[in-house]
Write a structure and sequence with these properties.
This protein is mainly alpha-helical. The protein has one domain. It contains two helices and no strands. Helix 1 crosses helix 2. The longest helix has 24 residues. It is elongated, with a radius of gyration of 14 Å. This is PTS sugar transporter subunit IIBC.
């Protein structure tokens, strides 16, 4: 996934609004995991036989 729109700084702010405190380093790791899981999910949907 090349076009990552959410920065770690933005993620920190979003999480802070929900009462969750994380560092920018942790936010970067969280975003990496989210993007990875999203990529896996998209690949599964696109490779699924349900839509054929």
């Amino acid at each position: 996934m090349k076009d990552k729109k959410l920065t770690p700084k933005q993620a920190v702010a979003i999480l802070a609004n929900e009462g969750i405190t994380v560092s920018e380093e942790d936010a970067e790791k969280i975003l990496e995991l989210i993007y990875y899981l999203a990529e896996i999910s998209i690949k599964q949907v696109l490779n699924s036989d349900e839509f054929d």
